[in-house]
Design goal:
Length: 153
């Protein structure tokens, strides 16, 4: 296989790369017959030792979550949104301490949570420094592209 040269249509690669940008995915793979093309872009990934089996129960006292359900954070300037469709996890592994909680101070680039998409764990970093005022998701919750996850003010 290494000695055999395969002709790949450059426009296919460009189209796949554009699809990555449009959807926020970090990797895409297509196969037609024996030809397989994978396009990926650099992303911070966290290797998971074991896939989370069940979501941890939500804490009983979550005033920020109750307040968050009453407010629309879609256009909030401090909202950190999901760059992809996937499953959000608040901690690096089941049972571990969450990356951040309401009231924590964060720095730009600090991991707030991870979103699993296509069996890849993608770190979601803080895009601004400040205090976490709302965590809008529960551990193990499915999330959509553009959905607000955390608010940093």
């Amino acid at each position: 296989m290494f000695g055999k040269k395969i002709q790949v249509d450059p426009s296919l690669v460009r189209n796949l790369a554009e699809l990555l940008n449009e959807t926020g995915l970090t990797e895409i793979e297509v196969q037609s017959g024996t030809q397989r093309v994978r396009v990926s872009r650099g992303a911070t990934a966290i290797a998971a030792a074991a896939a989370p089996v069940a979501a941890a129960p939500a804490p009983a006292n979550r005033p920020a979550a109750v307040e968050a359900s009453e407010v629309n954070f879609n256009n909030h300037p401090g909202a950190i949104t999901s760059p992809m469709v996937g499953t959000a996890y608040r901690s690096p592994e089941p049972g571990a301490r969450p990356f951040v909680d309401v009231g924590d101070s964060v720095k730009i680039g600090q991991t707030l949570l991870i979103v699993e998409a296509m069996k890849t764990m993608n770190a979601i970093p803080a895009t601004k420094a400040g205090k976490v005022t709302h965590v809008l998701i529960d551990d193990g919750q499915p999330v959509e592209f553009g959905q607000p996850l955390v608010v940093v003010e």
